[in-house]
Every structure is written in C-alpha cells, then in structure tokens.
Design brief:
The complex is a heterodimer. By secondary structure, chain A is of the alpha/beta class. Helices cover 20% and strands 19% of the residues of chain A. In chain A, strands 4-7-6-5 form a four-stranded mixed sheet. A three-stranded mixed sheet of chain A has the order 1-2-3, covered by helices on one side. In chain A, β6 and β7 form a beta hairpin. The model of chain A has no long low-confidence stretch (mean pLDDT 90). Chain B is globular. The chains are: A alpha/beta, B mainly alpha. At the A-B interface, loops of A face α2 and α6 of B.
Amino acid sequence: MQREIGTIDAQEVMAVLAAVPDPEIPVISVVELGIVRGFDPLREVVIITPTYSGCPATLVIEQSIRAALDAAGLSRILVKTELAPAWSTDWITQAGRAKLLAYGIAPPPLGDGAPSLRNRLAAQCPQCGSHNTTEISRFASTPCKALWRCNACQEPFDRFKCH
Amino acid sequence: MIDQPLFHYALRLGDDSLILGQRLSEWCGHAAALEVDLSLTNIGLDLIGQATSALGYAGDLEGAGRDADGLAFHRDALDYENCLLVEQPNGDFGQTIARQFLFSNWHWLFLSALAASKDATLAAMAAKSVKEVSYHVEFANDWMVRLGDGTPESHQRLSAGLDWNWRFVEELFIGDDVDNEMVQRGIGVDKASLRAAYDARIIDVLNDANLPVPKKHRAITGGRRGHHSEHLGHLLSQMQFLQRAYPGASW
C-alpha cells in the first residue's frame, strides 16, 4: 500500500541508514560518520554530504544508501548531496569515535576551526593507550587519515585527521 | 541564456584544480619516499575532487549537456582557462614543492574569500575546499623549510624550482573582465586585494627556509584567455588520451 507523503518519519529512515557501513571503515556507519545530515519528511529527501572532495568512497556510499532504502521499501525517498555546511570530523558521534578506536584508528581530536591546534596533540595509541606517539605522514592510506607510530608498543596506526 | 561570466568563473576554478591535480598524479610511484608519494597523490586527489564539483557546476551553467568529464576530456588547450603556474612541469621534487607552495598559499586565500560569495554553490565548494587546502599549505610550507634549510643540494634545487615558478605568480593577482563582473555582482574575489596577505605568508616561510624573497617579476599572463605554455598540451595528451581514442569509454 502506498504511504501518504509525510507519513515516513525521520526515525524510521535513520534506523535504516544506521545499518549502512562506511565502505572504507566498515565498523562505523554513515550516520555515525556524520555523512547523513538528515531526512526531510515533507520532501522525502535524505541529505548527505561528502567527507573529502576527492574521496573515492563517496559514490559507493551514495549507492549503499540507495540500496538500503530500496531494500527497506523506501524507494521513493530521494538521496541528495549537499556541500554546505562542509563536513567536519566534529560530526563523528561519540559512539562512532569509540568504534574507530576499537578498530585500531585513533579518532580525530575535536576542534574544527582551530587549525593551529590541529594534529599538534599527540594521538593516543589505539593498541596500548600510550600518548608517546609520533606522526609519520599527515597524508596516508585514505584522504581522511594520517599515519602515526607508537613509540611505546612500536605499532603503526592510522589517525583520523581533524577536518 | 548562459551566464557567461559565471560559467567561465566556475570553469577557471575547476581548471586550476584539475591541471595541478593531474600534475601531482604524475608523481604516483615516483617519489623518493612512500610518505611523500602518498602526500602528493592525496593532494592531487583532493584537487581532482574539487575540480569535479567546479566543472560539474560549469557544465550545469552552460546547459549544453557537458558534465565534468566532458569538460575535462574533450576540450583542447586553447579552451582551458587555468593559470600558467599549475601547468608547469614537475621538474624535480624541489620544483614541485616550490610550485605547490606558491599555488596553495594563493589557493587558500582565494577560497577563503570565495566562501563569502553570493553564489551559494561557489561559496559551498570554496568553504569545503579550503579545509582540504589548509593541509596542502602545511605540507608545502613544511617542505619549503626542510629543503631550503637542509643540505646545500636541497637548497640549490629548491632555489632553482622557485626561480622557475616565480614568474607565474603575478598572474594569480590579475583580474580580467570576467573577474571584474564577478566582483561587481558579489560573486567573485578581488584578486589584487589578496596580494598583501599572500606576500606576508610566503615571506614568513621563505625566511624560515633561508631563501631570499624573489624580486617582483613582470607579469606573464594568458592562462585565463587560453594562451598556455607548451607544457599544457603534453599534459592534456596524456590525460585525455583514452577518452579521445575511445570516446565514451567507461569502466
């Protein structure tokens, strides 16, 4: 049965999207990553925003969201990309940050808009918890991550860049 | 009717990023260290992503059915409107860093100002891109100091790279009719107004890098009118080959 416009609520849609993993870091969902900006129940549009302009995962993310909506019987909901406001790592949820850490990626420091402080504080090693760490390369395996090394346990690790 | 000045403005924004992104991609697999390889290609990726947005917008404004790929792969050098600096050859690592330093510091100032554009699409693209470019600036500035204040050889190579690229800096601050109209409509950036801030930024880094501040050079212009150095043609021949030989080919 066709549902009337305005009867699909945001909670229902967000529950569907909360099960869509990020293609690069599958432990975290596109909602936790802050890519999904919201759902407009009247226009029936899901608003998403890319992380980095050149992130190759952007297209895959849009397709995964489309597929999840279709599978939940919500095919008529449109997915729209908006650039403003620009994505920030401050939008990664607390739960998302905890999942990144458990996965072995140091979460980004808070404080977008304070470039002088960015990356200056030593990252905490996700393996042993030490703060005795060194940045090896600010550009690393993906646009959103930097490569670090722990001087205590010697393990290299990724750190989500502050953005 | 096409908003010609706005179309060209978006095109230039995209062309600057696309051409430098392509140049940086030439380093893939060739840099002296893995970390540097990753950095140059990641910066290139950011720039090509920015170009995709800007050229996509230009294509929409034009309304002739050309998308970002169409504009990137099916235009000749004469129809490219990037500044001359970004098409300069990579040379050695010192020359690449000098070019990145001179461009990224300008790019950051330009995008920061464009973020206040009355054109919501350009403003959104600029506000997003400037966050990425902050990292490009840090990378380039750090390497300027490391090479300039490094060994006699790294210092000499960086100096030579700066000499090569310096003559193309003036063009970044010169506006034409398109710029003037865009500024009047509250859409574009008054490029000349960025000069003082630019000089302050680069002089700081040059001092740290033990490099003299180069003398002001007579402006070499033409990029925005499609008059390019011979280097652009070679770059395009490589970048466009597949789509020229097999139009419409897809993965």
